[in-house]
Amino acid sequence: MSARRWHTVGAPGGPAEEAPVSSDDATVRLPGDRGDADGRYATDSYGEVPDRGFGVGGEQPAVSTPGYRPDEPRYETGQAAYRAPETDQTLVLGGAGWEPDEAPPRPPRDRLLVHGVWELLLAVGVAGMVAFCYVNQPGMFSSAGLRVLELQAATLGLLALAVSLSVRAAAPNLAVGAFAAVAGLLFARGYDGGVAGALAPALGVALLGGLALGVLVALLHVPAWAASLVALCGGFVTMTAVDHGRAVSLPTSAPDPARTALYWCVGVAAVSVVFGVVGLTGPARRGVGAFRPVADPAVRRGPGAALMAVVALTVSAGLAGGAGVLTVAHARTTDGGGAMLSDLLLALGAVLLGGVSAYGRRGGLFGTALGVAAVLVVLRYGEIRGWPTAVTTYSVAGGAIALGLVVTRLVEWVGHPRPRTEGQAVGAPVRSASLGSR
């Protein structure tokens, strides 16, 4: 049985009369204020509540329509607005003057425990490899063998620091090998009895190259790994053009860093740990990794993130240049750029193996130093056993990178707090995880 209500209808040229209107499918009504305080119907009888239709109350004059029939549904017009009672299923669309009820919540903090657990496991693995090598190849740990191992650790450690800083800044520098080779070449060519006179142009060119790379990445907002390939090609061209790619020997009067290898090793490890300590603080970690994409990688991240990418790439190139100078000072000659790619791959493998996320920002405390130790122990063991150099180098680098990618997935999955769904009690288990928060 359909409900009925009455409208006052003005007929042309005659008095107003009461006409019934049926509440069938042809009648269109919107829920809203019907005259009572809480926006609901005061009674169950339509006849006792003034119908406002699309905003018109009972006091509005009736509208006359020629040819109107009383049994035909009609709509009243007016300018007054009404509000529908808001419920849990009310959809609110923003407009002029609309403001959200509350500010969006801050991104959850990264979970750092996963880095500590992984670094503990990695430390146990490195200790096991050292014990194995000590039993099978005790010559690795002789006085001369330790000096070589310590200097190699310092050199690879500087390269790993360069890669780690750029990866944490979400601007990976794949040209660290090129910067190291060019800096070493300039140091060998410019050495005329003074370390400072040869070191200044070598590091200066590396820093300027890193700055140019950072500006290119920031201005165009392009992936740093792609832009750094330009610098890598430039390194190959430079090494080939200068002296036609021939090796340049360092004068015998140049100091040999092997005498202070332990200090170099400890110093580089200390710098790595300091970088890790700074990265443990939330503001520093988020600031360094501000260039990391959130949704669309092509969307600019703002001037602050761009500036951080420029700084990270510049410092990364400088560290790589220092590694190249240290390599040439120990080897007493340049290698013609043949180690550009292998140096990059070994450093990248050590960084990823140490727990630095390939996506940027996330990293641990001792991970980079432990990754360098793990890679270097295997390389040194293969060198003493007489394994083919190229096969050993690229096998170790590839294995470290592959395992490092697994660690990256672990860090991103476990290291990110899982959001709590609406209405879920505090302490209740969360079943879903989101990896896009910052």
From TrEMBL:
Lineage: superkingdom: Bacteria
Region annotation (Disordered) ranges: 1-71
Keywords from the named record: Membrane, Transmembrane, Transmembrane helix
TM regions (residue ranges): 116-137, 149-167, 174-191, 197-217, 224-241, 261-284, 305-331, 337-356, 363-382, 394-411
Biased composition regions of type Basic and acidic residues, renumbered to the chain: 31-41
GO cellular-component term (any): plasma membrane
Protein name (database record): Monosaccharide ABC transporter membrane protein, CUT2 family
Source organism of the structure: Actinocatenispora rupis
